[in-house]
Design a protein that fits this description.
six-stranded parallel beta sheet, about 40% helix, globular, binds adenosine-5'-diphosphate-glucose
């Protein structure tokens, strides 16, 4: 019998005023009910590429709203559930006419219109074929087209135009991620009264890499419109500061950057800081008490043929997640007889992602070919060696999988944080299970009790998997207790609280500086254009 974690006293924890009214569990699973006519003047406005819900047209022509995929939505949706007068500005997931603003489960949603050409150039192009691979250490070659940049700029302008009027006077606008790097400055031009935060969910590359793409200075200047910039890991923060110091030549003190003002505004102090993101740990952990979810976990093992061990991978189907590395290691362990497919089964959940981007299409083909080969060679009759799932699951189903898994593999060669690692830990109050975690995922900076691995080293990965499968119960419990301590204490609410606290402070200083200079009548510094003319770097694959 394995130990269970003792019940923890519910501690009062500091909560930022914007997050003060918990509206727990108002949302239904997956499907959301929309009402038109939101209220204007929101105290907190989130701006992200995607709304937390996607529109889906039903056979009878009606629109249904379902939770949109990805880590950003998973994290921010649970934060926004605790906010009164919150708004979210983003794309509803389908090109063309945007729906009118509407309310869903107590939050006002403001859809941004993107045309098919924007989807191809701004989203699939500059965001996901230029910046995404570049920020993930060029795991695949970034591509740059000048037309993509034009579209990136105009789409960012549209997000800024949608966000600026909906914030209350002196309110807070929180911009998210690499698709919207120009938005903070574009908002500041329209709304100098608001506090602007920016959070980068993905890694920030070294200055040598960041210096390569055309328009890098525009991206830096765009981001520096914020009062506070947040990053996942200390190395990301330091890389960003180095990038600002080098190409822009701005004065930097520690991680505080002195930025020339816009128009009549004086120089501003902008802070860069590390805020490792987390999950709604208590909510995930609470699901494990649900008898129906426990039953699903038991049924899952039974449906797989009652193997001794279940090994699980859960990822968006993305080349940064290391699915290929994992399958290679798994295939070799089966080939050399180190794993018996009658005793041990792997589940690989690979959520559909960016399917129109070439590198993602190639990855899907490769992964599915490899899974087919492994199953063809090793699967016992009537059951898989690798159970491959290329679709979405609801939260309850995901929790059942985590509860059933003896080992979870997170083998990303580069990942901002990786919420799957934290979700697994939060799903194991029974202290059973082993997390194998890439040292290149942000999650590896915090709980050191995981089996850390370099996924590029296939032999090391194979050894780590075997070690995890053979780990004695007491060792599992000790490691899981330590991991849980970290994940349960540092949840997404405390992450948001920390960020907003720092933003409030940074914003207050910026406003005070504006007032001082206006009262002195100082000469404003010349504003710099956001879109600089610059020849493409010769080392960058430019078209
Ligand atoms: P992602 O790369 O999208 O986001 P990741 O941290 O891997 O995020 O989290 C993925 C989320 O999607 C998890 O909550 C997971 O449970 C969920 N998910 C995955 N497959 C699913 C499926 N089939 N059905 C339902 N849910 C599924 C980016 C960065 C990360 C960073 C997050 C948050 O790339 O490094 O951790 O943002 O900042």
């Amino acid at each position: 019998m394995s130990a269970r974690e003792p019940p923890r006293p519910v501690l009062g924890r500091p909560t930022h005023a914007l997050l003060a009214q918990p509206r727990t569990q108002r949302r239904s699973h997956g499907v959301h009910h929309a009402r038109p006519r939101p209220l204007p003047g929101h105290e907190l406005v989130v701006v992200a590429n995607r709304l937390p819900v996607d529109s889906r047209t039903l056979p009878d022509g009606a629109t249904e709203w379902v939770t949109s995929p990805g880590g950003l939505v998973t994290a921010m949706e649970s934060v926004m559930r605790t906010v009164d007068s919150g708004a979210w500005v983003g794309w509803a997931g389908a090109p063309g006419e945007a729906p009118d603003p509407f309310e869903a489960d107590g939050m006002s949603l403001y859809p941004v219109r993107l045309e098919q050409e924007d989807v191809e150039r701004y989203y699939e192009g500059y965001s996901n074929a230029t910046l995404w691979p570049l920020y993930h250490d060029v795991i695949v070659d970034p591509v740059f087209h000048r037309t993509w940049w034009d579209s990136y700029l105009s789409a960012n302008q549209r997000f800024a135009e949608a966000a600026a009027p909906v914030a209350a006077r002196g309110g807070t606008i929180w911009v998210h991620d690499y698709q919207l790097r120009l938005v903070p400055r574009l908002i500041r031009e329209k709304r100098p009264d608001v506090r602007i935060g920016f959070f980068n969910h993905i890694p920030f590359p070294s200055v040598e890499l960041f210096s390569q793409p055309p328009k890098r200075n525009s991206i830096l200047r765009g981001s520096l419109g914020a009062d506070l910039l947040g990053f996942q890991r200390e190395s990301d923060t330091l890389n960003f500061v180095a990038a600002v110091r080098k190409p822009l030549g701005y004065h930097v003190e520690g991680t505080t950057i002195s930025v020339p003002g816009l128009g009549a505004a004086p120089r501003r102090e902008v802070e860069a800081r590390t805020f490792p993101i987390s999950i709604d740990s208590a909510a995930v952990s609470a699901l494990t008490e649900d008898p129906e979810i426990r039953e699903r976990a038991a049924r899952l093992r039974h449906d797989l043929g009652d193997p001794d061990k279940i090994v699980l991978g859960v990822d968006r189907l993305d080349y940064t997640k290391g699915i290929r590395h994992r399958l290679k290691a798994w295939g070799e362990l089966l080939d050399d007889g180190s794993i018996d497919p009658h005793d041990t089964v792997m589940i690989q959940v690979a959520t559909p992602s960016r399917e129109r981007v070439e590198a993602y299409r190639r990855l899907r083909d490769e992964v599915e070919l490899t899974v087919g080969r492994i199953n063809g060679e090793h699967a016992p009759l009537g059951r898989p060696a690798v159970s491959y799932q290329h679709h979405s699951f609801d939260r309850r189903e995901m929790t059942a999988m985590y509860m059933a898994a003896d080992v979870v593999l997170v083998t990303a060669p580069r990942d901002g944080m990786n919420l799957v690692a934290k979700e697994y830990v939060a799903s194991r109050p029974d202290l059973h299970g082993v997390l194998v975690l890439s040292e290149f995922a942000g999650a590896a900076d915090e709980p050191r009790a995981a089996v850390l691995v370099n996924p590029h080293d296939i032999d090391e990965l194979k050894s780590a998997i075997l070690r995890a499968l053979a780990m004695p119960e007491e060792e599992q419990e000790e490691a899981m207790r330590s991991l849980r301590h970290q994940v349960m204490e540092n949840d997404v609410q405390s992450w948001a609280h920390d960020f907003l606290e720092h933003l409030e402070h940074a914003g207050r200083e910026a406003q005070a500086a504006v007032r001082v200079v206006r009262s002195r009548g100082d000469e404003p510094s010349a504003p710099e254009e956001i879109d600089e003319a610059r020849a493409p770097s010769p080392t960058f694959r430019a078209c």
